[in-house]
Amino acid sequence: MIRLKNISKSYGKSFNISKLNLHIEKGKLTSLLGPNGAGKTTIIRMITGLSSYNEGEILYDNEIFNRDSNHLKKKIGVVNQHINLDKELSVYENLIFAGKLYGLKGNVLKERVTHQLAQFNLEIHKDKLVKKLSGGMKRKLMIARALIHFPETIFLDEPTVGIDLVSRKQIWNEFIRLKNEGKTIILTTHHIEEAEYLSDKVILLNDGIIYSKDTPTNLINDLGKYTIEWFEGEVNHKFFTTLEKANIYSNKLNVVYSIRKTTLEDVFYQFTKKKVN
Ligand SMILES: Nc1ncnc2c1ncn2[C@@H]1O[C@H](COP(=O)(O)OP(=O)(O)OP(=O)(O)O)[C@@H](O)[C@H]1O
């Protein structure tokens, strides 16, 4: 379990996290969702030792984690939001280099690299220089690289940006496989359907403050399981706990409408609208 206790951090006057408390459960996939600038990357950077904080402590299984906790860092894999591959090296060389940084060598290193190339459909590109890869391929390589040492805890900061739908779904399967192996995964994404599909828990945050933490199903049920959607100058939504209540309401509408199941995207949209406006 990862625990943030009373974490405070500020970037001058522009952004402030004050006494943040958070538990991230072991073996689960937890998503951090929030609008641009909510603080998702800042939180991930603090938990992975890439950013400092002013106050508080971070614990991995009751052990204090700081920027010098190298033995704990070896158990972590991080996919950064920004592409930070070595673009003058090939796909294969990037994976070899990353593996060596984690102390892998010989046949073990070669086997891991071969495994990762296969998992992310990168075999045919293995000798290409990174600078010649498409954006989606670079993203896949970022994920393959972060998992080269089979980490226990995996941080994915917008890992599937720019990846096509088919590849994205293959990557989702890989994340589910990792979760089923007992890995702890922390995800940020602007693909809300990705978070709905993958997450055990979703954290909604804005301005460095956590507003909710629950399962996708509970967050959806809290808003109302059924949505009526109609257009009257703008798109309108109303949420209902039962289909019967939605039907009664819809009978009073004199416009074209649709009734559908509420999604996590509706939850996120309502949350963001309220917090940003
Ligand atoms: N190095 C920095 N120096 C100053 N301000 C920063 C720095 N990094 C981030 N910020 C500010 O901190 C706030 C939170 O940024 P952060 O990147 O954590 O948000 P985010 O939720 O990940 O956003 P996005 O969805 O756009 O990636 C923003 O207002 C941002 O401008």
UniProtKB/TrEMBL annotation:
Q: Does the keyword Ribosomal protein apply?
A: no
| InterPro entries xrefs | AAA+_ATPase, ABC_transporter-like_ATP-bd, ABC_transporter-like_CS, ABC_transporter_ATP-binding, P-loop_NTPase
Query: Which Pfam families does the record cross-reference, listed alphabetically?
Result: ABC_tran
KW Repressor (keyword) present:
no
- Start and end residues of each ABC transporter domain: 2-232
Cite the PROSITE patterns for this sequence: ABC_TRANSPORTER_1, ABC_TRANSPORTER_2
Q: What keywords were assigned to this record?
A: ATP-binding, Nucleotide-binding, Transport
Q: Which domain of life is it from?
A: Bacteria
Task: Please provide, alphabetically and separated by semicolons, the GO molecular function terms listed in this UniProt record.
Answer: ATP binding; ATP hydrolysis activity
Matching PANTHER family, A to Z?
Answer: ABC TRANSPORTER ATP-BINDING PROTEIN, ABC TRANSPORTER ATP-BINDING PROTEIN NATA
The Swiss-Prot or TrEMBL record describes its family as follows: Belongs to the ABC transporter superfamily.
Q: Mind telling me what this protein is named?
A: ATP-binding cassette domain-containing protein
Species source reads Helicovermis profundi
The organism's lineage? Bacteria, Bacillati, Bacillota, Clostridia, Helicovermis
